[in-house]
Amino acid sequence: MARLKVGIAGYGIVGKRRHECLDKHPRFETVAVCDRNFPTDATLPSGIRAFTNYRALLDLPLDVLIVCMSNDMAAEVTIAGLEKGLHVFCEKPPARTLEELSAVLETERGRPNQRLMYGFNHRYHGSVQDALAIIRSGELGSIINLRGLYGKSKLITFNQPDWRAKRELAGGGVLLDQGIHMVDLMRLFAGEFDEVHSVVSNSHWGYDVEDNAYALMKTSAGVVALFNSSATQWRHQFSLDINLERGSLLLRGILTSSKSYGSETLTIVHADPDRDNGDPVESARTYNSDPSWDSEIAALAEAIDTGTAPDHGTSRDAFLTMSLVNSIYHADEQWRTRHRIPDPKKYSL
To answer: What's the pLDDT score for residue 328?
Structure first.
């Protein structure tokens, strides 16, 4: 099969990492990139063409567009790629607002032969994949509740661009930027949450976006989730407890390029409340490598070649996860009023 020609819109840290993964996959050939920080249009030493504007990139004969732009550009560039007849992979968050994302989905509906996939990368981590397999096997019974914390020490860390702290560009703060991963995983494990209570604040860093969001959520089946997305977590932390009828799954740490979230582990608890008195038998798995980025690119290739939706990161996933994020914003009356957050129920798939 001929290799698919790929353009990457946004060539910062994430764009370059996606490029590395594309180079390792036999179905893809990256032929051009764009970034507004390039001084001028040029050809890189590798022979790849480089542009300062994504529209020049889209004038090339491409098959696939990878979107790694700032949040204010994500929906616009995704729509432009779809309108050019391309398959599109876009990083999270998929847009600043549900209104922007709804416009993307409307464009996608008229193009059934094109694939649209979103980069909810945490779904492809080893601990998450193994936890999901155990839940689906039924060996520990049904989920009772979940407790999650995903936190970092600042809104802007590791020399990230400061647009992340500007509402007009980012659309939201730590919840939309990082916490969206935990929201997506809770949906993956437990299904859809239709009751949401929250407290959202920016009382510490003082930016016009949240530095903490606290949510209490429940599904129609009665599964309860408690979640904190934080930019005042001085020791970076990723943790997710999933308590089931006959045990628990404890996810700790997540392998990232910064390596600041500690080792990635999954502890499997087999509980018998009538016998173990709170000290059950446990086994632990440690994950020493992160195949998630390569796995996502492989999933994109499979979706394109088979003409089917990927297992993870569909536009439906993106919409439902964004809807839940917006439900957390909307449930805090003060936050909703101050930032004019519309009712997420206004939008639908």
So the answer is: 98
Q: What is the 3-state secondary structure (H, E, C) of 54-65?
A: HHHHHCCCCCEE
Give residues with Cβ within 8 angstroms of 17, minimum separation 6: 257, 293
Overall residue count recorded for the chain in this entry:
349
Q: Is 123 helix (H, G, I), strand (E, B) or coil?
A: helix
Alpha carbon of 330 to those of 71, 196, 277, 340, 346: distances in Å? 20, 9, 41, 9, 12
- Contact (CB, 8 A) for 277 and 176: no
Reported as type and span, the H/E element at residue 101 is helix 98-109
| Cβ burial 130-142 (10 Å sphere, 16+ → b, else e) | bbbebbeeeebee
In this structure, are strands 42-43 and 49-51 parallel, antiparallel, or unpaired?
antiparallel
Sheet strands side by side (includes 116-119): 42-43, 49-51, 28-34, 4-9, 64-67, 87-91, 116-119
212: left (phi over 0), alpha (psi -120 to 50) or beta: beta
Cα 282 to Cα 302: distance, rounded to the nearest angstrom? 36
Amino acid (1-letter code) at residue 189 = F
State the pairing for strand pair 28-34/49-51: parallel
Residue type, 48: I
Report pTM: 0.96
Pairwise CA distance, residues 212 & 203, whole Å: 8
Helix (H) or strand (E) holding 30: strand 28-34
Coil, helix or strand for 349? coil
Could you tell me the mean pLDDT of each successive run of 10 residues in the chain, 349 residues long? 95 96 98 96 94 97 97 98 98 98 97 97 98 98 98 81 88 97 98 98 94 98 98 97 98 92 97 88 96 97 97 97 98 97 95
